[in-house]
Design brief:
Blueprint lengths: L5 H6 L4 E7 H4 L10 H12 L3 E7 L12 H4 L5 H15 L5 E4 L3 H8 L6 H19 L5 E3 L11 H9 L6 E2 L9 E2 L13 H14 L6 E6 L2 E3 L7 H18 L4 E6 L11 E2 L3 E2 L3 H4 L8 E2 L1 H12 L4 E8 L3 E8 L4 E8 L9 E4 L11 E4 L4 E2 L4 E4 L4 E6 L3 H9 L2 E4 L3 E10 L2 E8 L5 E7 L7 E5 L2 E8 L9 E9 L5 E8 L1 E4 L9 H8 L3 E3 L5 E2 L14 E8 L3 E9 L18 E7 L12 E8 L5 E5 L12 E6 L2 E9 H4 L9 E11 L4 E6 L14 E5 L1
Parallel strand pairs: 1-2, 2-3, 3-4, 4-5, 6-8, 7-9, 29-41
Antiparallel strand pairs: 8-10, 11-12, 13-14, 14-15, 15-20, 16-19, 16-21, 17-18, 17-20, 22-23, 23-26, 24-25, 24-27, 27-28, 30-32, 31-40, 32-33, 33-38, 34-35, 34-39, 35-36, 37-38, 39-40, 39-41
């Protein structure tokens, strides 16, 4: 989408563009008046460069003259003929110039955003999909119809999609879902998840499986997919390189799913900002301030180069298999039967433990590379060598098909060596006067090293680090509360005199001690703790612009936190104009108006919870009774002084004490650090629409590394 320069797009391998057939744009002046000028020009311009088009019908953006005022009203049988007539007119004009027609964009978000609440959102879209399908087929029987181009919010469960197909299963030829991950922002302080980690291929296979379940031949055209790079990242920063790596990895993984026929990368350029980031592969220097203007000096980013390399090498291939070398090296093998060649793509998934990359050494007997090519993801040919440098940005090995099996066998027996002998991981402030860290010795022998806070070398002392992971604690000074800060640790290898310095970014919030014996818990918190006020769009997830957050009255919160000798205390006042509590007996509280609270007392978990993490969901059920469950959905019995929830006008007030026994084996003490996060979920209709919280890391994916740290004071 958003191709500004069709020639440039064609040069990097774009073959199809998705364009928006917005009802308001095409019939602004009345039901008998059409303006085809922009659409005609855009489709013709792309065709001249060999780029095909699919049209996305956008009925939710309506002309002002229509009698219906919402997408729910359009789904009424008396108004659906208007929609059918619009689809017939569009398809009749362009049926010979487009590859497919798509019914709505991200209907799971758009229908919820524009629905009035009488009909279920899936019933509304099922009616729209059926009417659009029948109208299109009436004038172009052979033109494919794409449906269910749902947003990333519907993944991985695909609940909206399942419900729609249960109502209207025979009214689409192709599944167009957008398998975005919520953790898709790269750069700044973001913690993105890679395509393998968020199971991109699994999400696409799930779409194919759902079509099979409903008797439909599985065809997948994911009409949007991508990651976004922070606007302040330089063109060749490590984050920009990671952005390019995710582009190549995602394309490779999609090619490993036979049912995926087309993948529409989002986007060529991006006329907007999302969490201060852009999805565009083409960028410009002043994009932060002129993102909405087409003029300017646009240039390709490394992501565009990675896209071009994948388009060139994977254009006409068949997936053979996938395997790994060691725990982190992915290998995907493809066959190019037209050119009688094999293409193997290799990359490192987790490079933090090996110093950013690794060397793969083929056995001495391997000779298969002598007749092949090695090409990096940016399209540059690399001299043939039995040693390959691996990182998240894939490298491609192309050999004659006759050599493919021998090359695969050589790769399976290859050795992988870390780029760095000493690597620091999981460095964090664990107390006001202490830093904890893991030092990985990738050598086969013990290493003698000095470890110290960089600004206090005088505190260093020699340590013998055996091979593998060494968990250490070192003294720290100058740790500051309340504002984002940074410090660093240094490891001095005493044999080689080399040093490894690692920056530690931290944001420590003060957790005051309260005395609930002198006044009720909530009063103590409100009197002593500093309020946390979350009222802005940046606090709301998902970040998709289509999420229907109407402002602070729709969803916002104020919170106070403290601790006692018994545990962690939390008071949260959630402003929510519509309250929908879970029915009695339901344990999936997160899908209703509720509060989720998560702890990481070990300060070490990254993606996913470990043994030191706990998560709790709290809600007021539809009978007005407080209920609490753990992360597994098991109900937690509680004393009256542990949990109180009440509804006061448009406020839902949560007053909870988490005993130390719920959080781990041992209570924390003054000066200890831990991670804490909380979100308030909002359900105004059939499903949860959004949530608001201190940081990401609960509602979209479990990422304790994104939580703020707190110090007991």
């Amino acid at each position: 989408m958003f191709v500004r320069d069709a020639k440039a797009a064609a040069r990097i391998g774009v073959r199809v563009e998705r364009r928006q057939a917005v009802w308001e744009w095409l019939q602004r002046q009345g039901s008998e008046t059409w303006d085809w000028t922009g659409m005609d020009k855009g489709i013709s311009n792309r065709a001249e460069q060999g780029i095909g088009t699919i049209l996305t019908i956008r009925p939710e953006i309506r002309p002002r003259w229509t009698k219906w005022k919402s997408i729910e009203e359009l789904a009424d049988p008396k108004h659906l003929p208007d929609f059918s007539a619009f689809v017939r007119a569009v398809v009749s004009r362009y049926k010979d110039r487009i590859l497919a027609v798509e019914i709505m964009n991200e209907p799971d978000l758009e229908v919820s955003r524009h629905a009035a609440g009488v009909l279920h959102t899936t019933e509304i879209y099922a009616r729209i999909l059926k009417a659009g399908y029948e109208a299109s087929k009436s004038v172009a029987p052979d033109l494919p119809v794409i449906g269910l181009d749902v947003s990333g919010v519907d993944f991985p469960r695909l609940q909206f999609s399942k419900d729609v197909l249960s109502r209207a299963s025979g009214y689409m030829d192709i599944f167009g879902g957008h398998p975005y991950n919520h953790s898709r922002y790269v750069g700044g302080d973001a913690l993105p998840e890679s395509p393998p980690k968020m199971d991109a291929a699994g999400r696409m296979r799930a779409m194919a499986a759902l079509m099979r379940q409903h008797g439909l031949p599985p065809r997948i055209w994911s009409t949007e997919f991508g990651w976004a790079l922070h606007l302040d990242e330089p063109l060749f920063s490590p984050s920009a390189r990671l952005f390019a790596a995710f582009t190549a990895q995602a394309i490779l993984l999609s090619r490993s799913v036979p049912e995926v026929e087309k993948l529409f990368w989002f986007a060529a350029t991006f006329p907007g900002r999302e969490r201060s980031s852009s999805y565009g592969m083409f960028r410009k220097a002043d994009e932060r301030t002129t993102y909405d203007r087409p003029d300017g000096n646009w240039f390709p980013s490394p992501s565009a180069a990675a896209y071009a390399t994948c388009a060139r090498l994977l254009d006409d291939v068949v997936f053979v298999r996938q395997f790994t070398i060691g725990p982190f090296c992915h290998v995907l093998r493809f066959a190019n039967e037209t050119e009688n060649k094999a293409v193997l793509a290799l990359w490192m998934e987790d490079t933090t433990s090996v110093g950013g990359g690794a060397k793969l050494r083929l056995p001495a007997s391997a000779s298969t590379l002598q007749s092949g090519q090695i090409i990096d993801a940016l399209g540059r040919e690399i001299p043939l060598s039995p040693t390959l440098d691996l990182e998240p940005l894939p490298v491609f090995v192309v050999v004659p098909a006759v050599d493919a099996d021998r090359l695969e066998q050589s790769l399976r027996t290859a050795t992988v060596e870390a780029r760095e002998r000493i690597v620091v991981q999981n460095a964090h402030v664990s107390r006001l006067d202490q830093i904890s860290l893991d030092i990985i010795n990738n050598d086969l022998r013990p290493v003698s090293a000095k470890v110290f806070q960089t600004t206090h070398a005088q505190s260093a002392r020699s340590r013998l680090l055996p091979p593998g992971i060494n968990a250490l604690k070192i003294p720290a000074t100058g740790i500051v509360l309340e504002n984002p800060r940074h410090t660093s640790v240094t490891v001095l290898d005493e044999r080689t005199s080399t040093t490894v310095t690692t920056e530690i970014r931290y944001h420590l919030r003060s957790l005051p001690r309260i005395d609930p014996q002198t006044s009720p818990l909530e009063q103590s918190l409100l009197r002593i703790a500093t309020p946390i006020v979350l009222t802005q769009r940046d606090h709301v997830l998902p970040a998709d612009p289509g999420v229907d957050w109407k402002g602070a009255d729709d969803l916002s919160l104020t919170a106070w936190a403290g601790w006692t000798s018994e545990g962690i205390a939390l008071a949260v006042h959630v402003k929510d104009d519509i309250h929908i509590g879970p029915p009695s007996g339901v344990t999936s509280l997160w899908s209703f108006d509720s509060l989720q609270v998560a702890f990481d007392l070990g300060n070490r978990a990254g993606h996913g919870y470990d043994d030191h993490c706990r998560e709790f969901s709290l809600a007021l059920d539809d009978a007005g009774r407080p209920v609490m469950v753990d992360s597994g959905g098991a109900k937690i019995p509680f004393l009256p002084n542990h949990l109180r929830i009440r509804r006061d006008g448009t406020l839902t007030c949560y007053d909870v004490l988490f005993p130390w026994s719920w959080l781990g084996d041992h209570p924390l003490s003054e000066g200890d650090a831990f991670r804490l996060n909380f979100i308030a979920n909002d359900r105004d209709g059939a499903t949860r629409k959004c949530w608001i919280g201190l940081t990401p890391g609960i509602g979209e994916a479990k990422q304790p590394a994104a939580f703020h740290q707190w110090i007991l004071r």
